[in-house]
Structures are given as structure tokens and as C-alpha cells.
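Bit of a strange request maybe. I'm writing a small parser for C-alpha cell strings and I need a real example to test against, not something I typed by hand. Could someone generate the C-alpha cells for this chain?
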Amino acid sequence: MKSKISREKKTIETMISIYCKDIHKSEEMLCEDCKKLLEYAFMRLDICPFKDNKPACAKCTVHCYKDDMRKKIREVMKYSGPRMVLRHPVLTILHYIQART
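Reply from user aminoacidic:
Good idea to test on real output. This should exercise your parser:
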């Protein structure tokens, strides 16, 4: 079974990919802005003090994103979240289970 952090990374990578392809019209790879956002998200997950006991970001007591990156990631999640249900149902279910615990 994958660790919670690796599943979080897969989920955020998928959400950013959906956003970038739909909004920035990227075909194969992420645009530079989305690539930087993904690298930032991965870096923050790598240094998360909670590791595999990490709560969902919305329930976390430590907000580790800088304001500008938090704004960007919220925009991505707001757009991609509803689209995840049809495109990646398993990741969506796992994400919602984690968010409820």
C-alpha cells in the first residue's frame, strides 16, 4: 500500500495536470507555472511535519504554503476537484476518505 504522502502527491499532480490541460491548453507536459506549482507542492509534502499522519490540508493546523502559492493551489483545486470524480474516481474516493478522517 502506498504511503499517504505518495498518494497526496499523485492526487495533486493529477489535479494540476487537469487544470493545466484545460485552462492553459497544455497538451503533453505542464506549462512552466504549473510545473513550479507542482514542484512547490511536492517540496511542501516532503517536509510535512506530520508525514503519514498528515490530515487533509483543509483540516491541517500548519498552513505551510506561502500566500501566493496557496491562492494558486486553491484555484487548481476548485477547478479540478469536481472534474476528478469522472476522470479519476479512485483517487477522488481516497482523497475524500482521508479528508473525513
